Structure formats: C-alpha cells, structure tokens
Task: inverse folding
C-alpha cells in the first residue's frame, strides 16, 4: 500500500476512535483556604510581556501602604536591579480589592532565569524569559475557571516546558463574586509567576451592572496587558512580539465594526508587521468565527464579517479562540486525503487562509459543549468535547507543530496534532491581490 494511503487510513481511524471516547464526569469548583500571608506580602503574582525585553510583574497586597517595587537579578537572593511601578484598586458593590501592583522590570536577557521579590516582602520568585529566536513554545488554554479539571489542565501545562501562555478569554469565572478573582490569582500563581501569561477578555470578564459598575473593572485592574506599547487605546485588544511571532489579541466584547477604534487599530497594526522579522502571525480572540458546535452557534459571525478580510489580507497563519467548551480544528482534506494544508477563508478552502482552532476547554464550571452539528462541515477536520490544552511549537520560520492534549484520567494524552506551514513559505505573501477562490472540495 502506498505510504500516503496508509497515512490517510490511519488518520481516519484516529478520528473515528476519538469520537468514541467516553468522557469522565465533571468536577466540582475548588475550595480555597483563607490566606494566612501577612498583609504586606505579595499574593496572586503573575507576569506578562511588556515589550522591549521587559516584563510586567503584577501582584496584590492587603496592605494599602505596601510599595510597588521589584528587586531582581540572575542569582537567588542577590538582586542587581530594582524597579518601581504603579498601583491601583477598585470597588465592586460591597467588595474592595486589595492594592494591585504593576511594575515593569528590564531590559532582560532572553532565555534567562531571573529571581525576584515583590515589595521587599515575602518569598522569592523566579521567572524564565522567553527566547528571542526559534524554537519557541506556547501553551494555549481558554475558559479556565477554578474546578478540578482546571487544576489538571494547569498540571499538564506545567509539564510541557512552555515559554509563554496564551489565554483566549474567560479566566476566573468569578461571575460578579469578586473574591473568586482572588482565589483564581492564587490558583494560577505557581505557573503565572514563572512564565508570562498573555490574555484577552471573554464574556465572563464583563461583569457590568448598568448604572452601578462599568464592565471589565476587575479584569482591567488585575490583568494589565501591553496595550499602550502596541498603540492600542484599550486593554481589551493589543499586540506583542516574541521571538519570531507577531501575536494579536482581539476583543470580542469591544466594538469591532469598520467604524470602531478596534477595527482601525487592527488595520494599522497588521500593516506594520514585518514578516521578515516576525514570519509567524497569530491572532487570539474569545468567540470563534468557525464553530460547528451547537453551543454559541453564530455568535462570532458579525465580527468575522467585519474583520476576516483584514486577517486574510495580512496572511494570518493561525487563529485561536475559546468560548465554546470543546476542541475543534479546521484544515481541509483534499479529494485524495493527502494534503492537510488547505486553509480556510470565507467558509471555503483557501491555501492562503488561516488555520482556525477553538480551545475553550480549560476546565470551567459550566461543563463541556458536547452537541455538534451534523454533518460535520467540510472546513472542520477534528472536533471533540473534552477538557484539555494545546501547545504550539514554532520550530523555525517555516514550520510549527500544533498538538492538543486531552485530560484523560489526569494524564495529558495527545489526541490531535498537525504540522503547519507558515504562509511566508507558501508564496501567498508574494501575491499582490487575492481574488475570490472557489472551494477545492
């Protein structure tokens, strides 16, 4: 039998097997003991990229007089530099947050371990900066929440030796109960204090109460991203660069039509991308544009209609979304089942479109979205309602390896994977105009 035919048969068998997977039952929301840390000691420490080889350290203290300083260096207990930052706080009905600190440190050396202490109090933390060249690995998990499945997902991410975590919305599932933001911060601190977490907002971050509380108050106060560095006017959408990747974080819950600030910012941001410097172009958002699950069906259509042409013209390689509590990957199979690189644009096969992935299955309290539309659309290559996480290793300027790891009895089982060719290497960027293409299927 021809090797390509053998591969095609094995691929079909693997898809059939995944459809028969018996999913384990849901797990309860985690309970957290009351913090016994002194009021001046840092809590909920997390870090994020801040541009120009810098890192933002964020944490909370109960002591409102605590200093927003960070001491850091490359040897434990020996700090060669010190930075002072800013602080904020917010009120939400009867809840008052602690003092929320944001301090930028650097410039830092790439691919280097640093030791740091926040506010001159508490334990010493350590972080590792991402590399400045390939290879680089991103962990991806959306819709995390605070359940037993969340805990399992975080354990699996911790095993994958990632450089940066990408989170396409729905973090804490606090849902107006503001103390749940504090417990979420404590839950993710072991990972989020050691590797940068880059996040965008989801519907569970809105938490608006008309006439009383503006939307995204907690999210914007606690999870400050480098929006100013990317010339964005809102913390709800921004971009950043790391190693050879330009990554755009879009806001599904900020205005996005052609007259909006986000639309004009995105158009300008994509126009400035230098694919010689950053050959990979990734986009994250919360509500998927391509979704064959019955949950949240059609919710991304308006944003897709407005912005998909911008992403296509810019030759975005990969679009990652959350919101739907299941996993799904696009990528066309041609008539001979040999070619997995038929991308998607305007619902049709297009070799110069992105690969679309939905990965809103981090472990939230609402459970899995297990009902799919039948028959499976042609653009959908793999779909399964299970909790898990994704990993994308960008190997070089032309190739990246994507894998999805199902939470199976607390073991990270790799259940789907695909090699992705960058559009830089495909010849798409050399074309001046791209007319409408008919489906190749």
Result:
């Amino acid at each position: 039998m021809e090797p390509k035919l053998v591969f095609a048969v094995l691929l079909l068998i693997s898809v059939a097997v995944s459809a028969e997977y018996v999913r384990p039952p849901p797990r309860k929301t985690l309970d957290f003991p009351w913090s016994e840390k002194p009021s001046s000691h840092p809590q909920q420490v997390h870090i994020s990229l801040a541009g120009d080889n810098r890192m933002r350290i964020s944490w909370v203290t109960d002591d409102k007089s605590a200093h927003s300083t960070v001491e850091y260096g490359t040897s434990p207990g020996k700090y060669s530099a010190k930075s002072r930052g800013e602080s904020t706080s917010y009120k939400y009905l009867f809840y008052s947050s602690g003092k929320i600190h944001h301090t930028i440190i650097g410039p830092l050396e790439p691919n280097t371990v640093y030791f740091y202490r926040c506010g001159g109090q508490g334990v010493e933390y350590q972080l590792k900066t991402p590399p400045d060249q390939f290879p680089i690995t991103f962990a991806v998990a959306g819709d995390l929440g605070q359940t037993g499945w969340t805990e399992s997902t975080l354990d699996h991410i911790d095993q994958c030796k990632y450089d940066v975590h990408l989170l396409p919305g729905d973090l804490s599932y606090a849902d107006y109960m503001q103390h749940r933001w504090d417990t979420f911060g404590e839950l993710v601190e072991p990972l989020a204090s050691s590797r940068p977490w880059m996040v965008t907002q989801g519907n569970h971050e809105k938490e608006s109460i008309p006439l009383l509380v503006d939307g995204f108050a907690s999210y914007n106060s606690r999870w400050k991203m480098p929006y100013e560095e990317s010339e964005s006017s809102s913390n709800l959408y921004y971009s950043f660069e790391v190693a050879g990747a330009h990554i755009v974080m879009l806001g599904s819950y900020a205005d996005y039509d052609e007259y909006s600030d986000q639309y004009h910012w995105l158009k300008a941001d994509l126009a400035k991308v230098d694919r010689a410097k950053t050959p990979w172009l990734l986009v994250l958002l919360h509500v998927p544009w391509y979704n064959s699950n019955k949950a949240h069906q059609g919710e991304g259509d308006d944003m897709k209609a407005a912005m998909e042409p911008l992403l296509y013209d810019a030759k975005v390689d990969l679009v990652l979304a959350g919101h739907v509590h299941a996993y799904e990957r696009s990528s066309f199979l041609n008539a001979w089942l040999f070619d997995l690189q038929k991308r998607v644009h305007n619902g049709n096969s297009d070799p110069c479109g992105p690969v679309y992935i939905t990965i809103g299955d981090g472990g939230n309290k609402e459970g899995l979205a297990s009902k799919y539309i039948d028959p499976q659309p042609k653009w959908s290559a793999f779909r399964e309602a299970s909790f898990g996480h994704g990993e994308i290793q960008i190997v070089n300027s032309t190739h990246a390896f994507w894998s999805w790891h199902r939470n199976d009895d607390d073991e990270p089982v790799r259940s789907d994977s695909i090699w992705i060719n960058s559009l830089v290497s495909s010849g798409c960027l050399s074309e001046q105009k791209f007319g409408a293409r008919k489906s190749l299927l």
Notes: The chain is about 15% helix and 30% strand. The domain at 3-25+132-430 is CATH 3.60.21.10 (Purple Acid Phosphatase; chain A, domain 2).
